[in-house]
Amino acid sequence: MIRVLIADDSRLVRGVLREILEHDSEIEVVSEAGNGAEAVERCIKDRPDIVLMDVQMPVMDGIEAVRRIMESCPTPVIVLSATVNSSETRSAFTALNAGAIDAIAKPSGVISHDTLGDIAEEIISRIKLYSKVGQKGKWAVDKQPLSERIKTPSQSSKVIAIAASTGGPGSLASLLGSLKADFPCPVLVVQHITPGFMKGFAEWLAKETPLEVHLVEHAMRLEPGNIYLPPDDHHLEVARGSVTLSSAPPVLGCRPAADVLFNSVAREYGDRAVAVVLTGIGSDGAEGAAAIRKAGGEVIAQDEETSIVFGMPRAVIEKGAATHIAPLGRIPLVLADIVSGGESGEEGYGDKDVVQEVLVVDDSPTMRAMLYDILSAGGHRIRQAENGRIALEEIAQKEPDLVVLDVMMPEMDGHAACRKIRELHGYIPVLMVTAKGAAEDLVKGLEAGADDIIAKPFEPIELSARVSSLLRIRALHQRLYTQNIELESKNKELERMAKALNRANKELTLLSVTDGLTKSYNHRHFQERFKAEFARAERYGTFLSVILIDIDHFKKVNDTYGHPVGDQVLVRLVEILQESVRKEDLVARYGGEEFVLMLPETSGPRSLLLARRIRERVESELVRIDAGLAVAFTVSLGVACYEPSGQIANAEELIAKADAALYRAKENGRNRAELA
């Protein structure tokens, strides 16, 4: 069960969020807070797995609350921020810099169960993601800057393209904040981010780095020491030394997409292209990174240990596109080395080819030394363990690409260790080394889960061949795993798009039957429903009443106060009508300032009583426009009822009788209700 703390100064928002979250069986809301100070207190006391935090709150805002939580009880914090206000989006990124793990955009307009429901799936999916990240201890990005920024080479003809997704804002701030203002290359950035946040992100990032930040709005010449970001829902590309925008279809569900940027950089700059792939979900950037490497450029992938989500970097590495793998804090130094053509003096931050790691497990120091010499000569990185128990501890810390495992060892032999590896971990090839070569010993090793067995003494060339074979299998397995992850990601994107289409269709249907101003049903929808309801009343012999309502002297309201005030009067009248009727009744705008109520199974006297109550309520209320203006208005109402034993022949005649009653109400002095 994922335990969540909700911090928001709105009781309504907290209630809606609680209802949304607890609808998922894997999530429990353990506590709520109405301000930042209370959020810190509840976090220390209740120890939630995730905190859902509003930015703007009284007593202590969300930014300071995040800082206090990081100091006292580090917990993954997701901030909620409106996108309509650039200052609030900047605050959201300041909260990210203070230690929050991510930001989600609140829907614009009035907050309700419906509007928050539109982002419910996004909130729940991120809570589940970050609860797992938090358990691994990777959610906190290292905010410590380098003691010295990297040395700036005197000149460079290279172009830097950076891609990031989940966890990216903090990582980008750390990386770009380590560069000097005279950095000799242009930097292009694709950051997957919630629509509406990009402008605020650019403004915030400009304060975190000495480089000049541009939110591209038109074609711009690329200049050294400048950072270029695309606006919402646009791809970023380069052509002929300039940065341009594209509205081409999304790639892997992303626009902007790293693949689009990387492919254009590969085409334009070839071996002068440099790609950096930071933390993020999915595989966007892998294809483009491969294109850059094929063109002779360099590709830096952030390592797993410092990635919030090791999705995009993993895809690049498993595709064989990474020329360097480095922790976040060392990437600026790798960049310095690449930009300076290898003259920066920085070494050891990644090899030209991805090095595969082999864990050698043997209780004999001599055998371990021999295996080390044979395998390291083949270009492999070697780790060592002296028995099965220590080997399992090593694998738990970081999985190797292959395990070379002796059979006869103290504490835990090779067979037991192999079975544990298969039980506790994903696919890791195991080459078992045995001093016996009998068939029964080989069978026993295979039954324990070994992929291959070699008997001592062995020829180094044979060992190397078997190791290479198993590593190829490992690479194929990882590629298949990545493809499966990508397929799952595409399927989820298709599901998301289907849901979005369904929502859009529902909205379109609603728009087609409602009045744009008052949100009541429109005249066409009323006529369709009314004819069907009249036919039902005829068939089953039930009552059906209609009430026509007209605002008295409405033209005078418009002439005196203006049409915007008149619009507010219309909206308020509809609110009163909707509050006065049952859920099975229908409220519609009949035309101009005239409205109609349809009341199934309601007699004439009961409908007249309702009409009088509506008239009294309208007369007693004022429509408050602002502190200095409140407008009073009245209505006239005409009521007509279809009775099973009556003389009304069709729906049009019933409306005509209600209209005649309304006309009589106006003739008799207005502000009254009449029954036909």
What topology emerges from the helices and strands here?
Layout: E1 2-7, H1 11-22, E2 27-33, H2 36-46, E3 50-54, H3 62-72, E4 77-82, H4 86-98, E5 102-106, H5 113-117, H6 120-135, E6 159-164, H7 168-176, E7 187-191, H8 198-208, E8 212-215, E9 220-221, E10 226-229, E11 235-239, E12 242-246, H9 258-269, E13 273-277, H10 286-294, E14 298-302, H11 312-318, E15 324-326, H12 331-339, E16 357-361, H13 365-377, E17 381-385, H14 388-397, E18 402-406, H15 414-424, E19 430-434, H16 439-448, E20 452-455, H17 460-513, H18 523-540, E21 544-551, H19 554-561, H20 563-580, E22 586-591, E23 594-600, H21 604-620, E24 622-626, E25 629-632, E26 635-642, H22 651-667, E27 673-675
Parallel strand pairs: 1-2, 1-3, 3-4, 4-5, 6-7, 6-13, 7-10, 8-10, 13-14, 14-15, 16-17, 16-18, 18-19, 19-20, 26-27
Antiparallel strand pairs: 9-12, 11-12, 21-23, 21-26, 22-23, 24-25
Helix pairs in contact: 2-3, 3-4, 4-8, 9-10, 10-11, 14-15, 19-20, 20-21
